[in-house]
Amino acid sequence: MIKRLLICLSLCLLATGYLLPQGKSAPAGALPLVQPETVGMSGERLGRIDAMFQKYVADNWINGASAIILKNGKIVYYKSSGYDDVQKKTPLQKDVLFRIASQTKAVTSVAVMMLYEQGKFLLDDPVSKYLPEFKNQKVLDKFNNADSSYTTIEPKRPVSIRDLLTHTSGLGYPAIGTKEMNALYAKYNIIMGITDKKIYLKDEMEKLAKVPIGFQPGEKWCYGLSVDVLGSLVEAVSGMSLEAFFKSNIFEPLGMNNTFFYLPVDKHDQLAKLYSRDNDNNLIMLTKSKDFDPDYPKVNGTYFSGGGGLVSTAYDYALFLQMLLNGGKLNGKRLLSESTIRMMRTNQIGELRSGSLFLPSGGDEFGLGFEIISKQGSIQIPMPAGSYGWGGTFGSLYWIDPVNKIAAQLVLQVSPNSYNEIRSKFVSLVYQAVTDTNGK
User: What's CA 377's distance to the chain center, in Å?
Assistant: First the structure.
């Protein structure tokens, strides 16, 4: 009789959100799991996400996928499909640790804005005021492909902290930019940001500062190493490593206990396998790459990349997303003011366009760290204007929708990433399940 009562009590607690899925005990202030219908979503329609994931796994298009969806601060969907190890048929766990890659940028941007709120700097200050190595930056003028020699011109103004937050600094990424900038980054041995080498952020940023920028600050939008420079700014201004700043000022207050730059040894087995495709387009586990070691999170590393270094879980990152959706606070802990969050999710690049790298077919504005859905973009996809987010190079995607009070995340671990179809379908399947568009 007592056993039966305990079972009934557990089921009741799960239904009302006091227990996490899969029998895990909930940390203090955990995001509650509820029936979707209680917050204006259809559980039946959310089941269509299961069907989509299962089909892509069955067709050998992906090894597996995880997703978490929040509405009104409550979990309405938190599941995984497919395999972590396809050959061994090891199921993919929804709480797997995954390489969040460029989702790190949002965390770094929050760290920067926290220091801004402390009066440490102004957004239009030259970054060279705090990182002197960037004081004499030049702008690329002419480039000789034959011998990689080049000429430069003076910038019209210094690169500002705002330029870095909005990717209008003139910095790009090695290998994915123009052929001229790619050649320059190769010449100066500039890394993408993911590494297992014993190197340090300050040293790498000093190297980067010697490379001319690709255009005049503020005149174009170009995705690149801007946020790695911001990571170095956080270290210089706070007097802490980026790892230590994140842990004490963001992760611990939010209860993000499974987010790291480099994994503790006892977490190594929880790291998701990374997949790619061979020359015959077959899905294969990626065990080595010419560009990076897939097991880089397992080393005792020293390079804290503000642009792409973190590892996390879907649940941990959902805590971070909910903090943003709440206007800068979660569980009684305020990281940022509502006015600062408003700035971050407001277009900062005027008539420039961001190129819609991660938010499918609709994100062409950019705030302080996030791509933003414009009014025109919201015509093409179900996300309302003002939704904002980004993703990671290994296939992950997240966004925050202040209108419907939705935060959602899709987790994939594939390289190279060519999965915009599943991202777009995930977005549409989230919104087709909304039954109350007033955010209640």
Answer: 21
